[in-house]
Amino acid sequence: MLKVNGINAFYGKIQVLKSISLEVEEGSIVTILGANGAGKTTTMKTISGLLKPQAGSIQFQGQDVTGLRPDQLLRKGVALVPEGRQILSGMTVLENLEMGAYHRKDNEIAQDIKNVMERFPILEERQKQLGGTLSGGQQQMLAIARAILSKPKLLLLDEPSMGLAPLIVADIFKIITEINEAGTTVLLVEQNARQALKISDYGYVLETGKMVAEGSSQKLLNDPRIMEAYLGRKSS
Ligand SMILES: Nc1ncnc2c1ncn2[C@@H]1O[C@H](COP(=O)(O)OP(=O)(O)O)[C@@H](O)[C@H]1O
Ligand SMILES: [Mg+2]
């Protein structure tokens, strides 16, 4: 579904991505692991069109989408839930959800918002509250729900569990699994490596802008070298 081929990305003169390649098969969950500063967010920004690669190509569903803008990619079915959530804190929960569907022209938006609220009852309860008054976990759910309302084929999630309490983290991983089971392909960036691999099919390890390892999630989970170097933080 997604093929990233040898992309380079720079901030000014500093090269942050050095010929990154990765593939995401339709229907799968793929995780990118890596320490702080490895280039994970930059990779997600490049795939979602926020940053233009200086070399390499990106293919989505067999089409060359290299250099397209985020709104063009969104229309093709690529949605990003950015790091740090970035919901609109001065708008209500409902308005935030409506923003997720702003580019759609079909008549199912109201029904889809209803469905999303059924799935995230807390968002229904708080629909008139400002986004900024939600807790971190609720904001993350809102960010994910908003992305779902764009009806993505590929959902990019940049550290969705960051800064959340363990119980909420478990919820978030469960939600990601459910979204995938409902037919959406997922590319996930996580520091919570063990839990991320447990729900993933395949994983990549990024180190200072280069892919240094890849393999099935099972293989990565069972590789002591990788566990020690990249899966650092222990969790269940
Ligand atoms: N807007 C920016 N301007 C300049 N350098 C940046 C910017 N954003 C990130 N960087 C640098 O690029 C590198 C990769 O960052 P990032 O992709 O955010 O890593 P990660 O998400 O893996 O923590 C880091 O060295 C970071 O300091
Ligand atoms: Mg990041």
TrEMBL record:
Name the UniProt record assigns to this protein: Amino acid ABC transporter ATPase
InterPro entries hit by this protein: AAA+_ATPase, ABC_branched_ATPase_LivF/BraG, ABC_transporter-like_ATP-bd, ABC_transporter-like_CS, BCAA_Transport_ATP-bd_LivF, P-loop_NTPase
Pfam families given in the database record: ABC_tran
Keyword Transport in annotation: yes
Record-annotated ABC transporter domain positions: 2-233
Organism whose genome encodes this protein: Sporosarcina globispora
Molecular-function GO term, any one: ATP binding
Alphabetical UniProt keywords: Amino-acid transport, ATP-binding, Nucleotide-binding, Transport
Family: Belongs to the ABC transporter superfamily.
SMART domains associated with the record: AAA
GO biological process: L-amino acid transport
Claim: Transport is one of the keywords in the record: yes
